[in-house]
Structure to design on (193 residues):
């Protein structure tokens, strides 16, 4: 018990000493004086100066580019804003219609202007036909779109294709309007080169 009291006595004494030493300074310590050069005279009016003001930030500088986001977000932004879009095919066909060529031209313009992106074209079909037949047809549709992009100046190394046949429908009703939406070449930004 005596050792506890002795310990407490010593601890209190050390605390009082530390507080006393810390408060005895009487003010803030002086900062060391740095050698400050004498101000120079301003340049003569006709004398060129080396100082150029920094550019003022613009609204574009302050707003992040959504295409610089992760690839999934960039893809969604490009699709939502019509920068890239899908193409559609007639029943049992893979030839490109005029509307498809126009859409592919817009896709090509985007890809040529944004050379960092790799695109994947997914070939899709409606539910009619066998699975094997639709996988092959989806492949021909995706490659028809790829070949047209390449003819418009997009590098072949930046365009990938995959066929899902009838396995990933965008619509599940059994009618011509739904089948038309399923016969597509679906475009996605899938990476950066």
């Amino acid at each position: 018990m005596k050792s506890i009291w002795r310990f407490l006595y010593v601890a209190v004494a050390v605390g009082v000493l530390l507080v006393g030493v810390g408060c005895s300074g009487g003010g803030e310590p002086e900062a060391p004086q740095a050698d400050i050069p004498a101000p120079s005279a301003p340049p003569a009016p006709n004398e060129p100066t080396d100082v150029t003001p920094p550019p003022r930030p613009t609204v574009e500088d302050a707003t992040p580019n959504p295409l610089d986001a992760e690839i999934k977000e960039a893809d969604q932004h490009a699709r939502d804003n019509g920068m890239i879009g899908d193409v559609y095919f007639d029943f049992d066909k893979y030839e490109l219609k005029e509307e498809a060529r126009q859409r592919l031209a817009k896709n090509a313009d985007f890809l040529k202007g944004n050379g960092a992106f790799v695109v994947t074209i997914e070939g899709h079909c409606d539910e009619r036909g066998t699975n094997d037949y639709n996988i092959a047809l989806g492949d021909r549709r995706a490659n028809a779109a790829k070949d047209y992009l390449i003819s418009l100046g997009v590098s072949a190394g930046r365009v990938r294709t995959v066929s899902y046949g009838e396995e990933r429908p965008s619509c599940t009703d059994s009618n011509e309007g739904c089948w038309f939406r399923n016969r597509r070449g679906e475009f996605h930004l899938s990476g950066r080169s």
